[in-house]
Amino acid sequence: EANAIRAEVAALAKLVERNTAEGGQIMDRLQVEQGFEKALGAALADDLRAPEVDEDGPSGWAELPAYDTPQALPDGITALTNHVSVPSVLERRMSQIGLVDGDDGNRLQAALLPGQRLVSVEGDLWRWDGYRAWAEDAPSAAALRMQHLNRIEELKQLLERATVRMDAARAAHEALTAQLSDLTRADRDAREARRDADRMVGETARAVSRAEAERNLSQGRVETLKMAMKRHEEDAFEAKAQVLEAEKTLRSLGDLDQARGQVDDVKMAVEAARMTMMSKRSAYDEIRREGDARVRRSQEVTKELSGWRHRLETAEKRSAELLERKATSEEDLAEASAVPEEIAEKREELNEAIETAQDRRSHASDVLAEAESELRLLVASERDSERAASDAREARARSEARADAAREAVSAAAHRIEEELETTPNNLLAALNTDADRMPPSDQVEAEVARLKRQRDALGAVNLRAEEDAKEVEAEHSQLVKEKTDLEEAIKTLRSGISSLNREGRERLLTAFEQVNENFSHLFRHLFGGGEANLVLVESDDPLEAGLEIMCQPPGKKLSTLSLLSGGEQTLTALALIFGVFLANPAPICVLDEVDAPLDDANVTRFCDLLDEMCRRTETRFLIITHHAVTMARMDRLFGVTMQEQGVSQLVSVDLKKAEQMVA
Question: Which fold has domain 506-586+606-612?
Answer without folding.
Answer: Rossmann fold (3.40.50)
